[in-house]
Specification:
Blueprint (H helix, E strand, L loop, with lengths): L3 H22 L11 H16 L12 E3 L2 E3 L1 H14 L3 H25 L4 H13 L1 H7 L4 H22 L2 H15 L7
Antiparallel strand pairs: 1-2
Helix pairs in contact: 1-4, 1-5, 2-3, 3-4, 4-5, 4-6, 4-7, 7-8
């Protein structure tokens, strides 16, 4: 039988994550209104790759996306493809990867604090701060590659700390994988 206090604690974490998701996803297709230029470039190239396999510059499945004279990292473009398939090409499918990244960041912050040795209550408080911080909510409502990068960085850091504490090679491998994913999402240099 489960300890009822542990179930209540994790239920509270679950509720924080659900509320955090709701704050990020509610009317995300209309608030903020319109799209930023960078969001439009992300959406256009992702839709182009989804439909044709080529970006706007006729490069097949590129690893760097040229956009308005600079280059964009590929992680956010490719993370949009399943949502374009499910929901079509619209503001919702454009911004939904950021919504998911912002929501998953709540859980990552909880585990990060827990692995740093803070207790359950402090880790829960850190997760709640992440969930209800206006800064994280607002940024999660824009299609920005930095949202995905922060998530990958947080997961990589969490697994690095877990590896340093437990010395299991699996955690080192996972830290490397997510750090590489973060590397695929930081701004590339021409």
């Amino acid at each position: 039988m489960y300890n009822i206090n542990i179930v209540k604690k994790y239920l509270l974490l679950f509720l924080i994550i659900v509320l955090g998701f709701f704050l990020r996803v509610y009317k995300v297709d209309t608030v903020p209104s319109g799209v930023l230029v960078d969001e439009a470039a992300l959406g256009y190239n992702a839709y182009s790759v989804f439909k044709t396999g080529f970006d706007e510059h006729k490069i097949r499945y590129p690893l760097l996306f040229k956009s308005f004279g600079d280059y964009k990292p590929p992680a956010y473009f490719y993370s949009q493809l399943p949502f374009i398939k499910l929901f079509g090409s619209n503001n919702f499918s454009l911004r939904f990867p950021s919504v998911l990244a912002g929501t998953l960041l709540i859980l990552v912050v909880f585990f990060l604090f827990n692995n740093l040795g803070f207790g359950f209550t402090t880790s829960l408080f850190a997760a709640a701060l992440t969930a209800f911080s206006p800064w994280t909510i607002i940024l999660s409502r824009f299609a920005l590659e930095s949202n995905l990068g922060l998530l990958f960085f947080g997961i990589g850091l969490t697994f690095t700390i877990k590896y340093l504490r437990e010395d299991k090679i699996l955690f080192a491998i996972l830290a490397g994988v997510f750090s590489a994913c973060h590397g695929m999402d930081i701004l590339p240099i021409e």
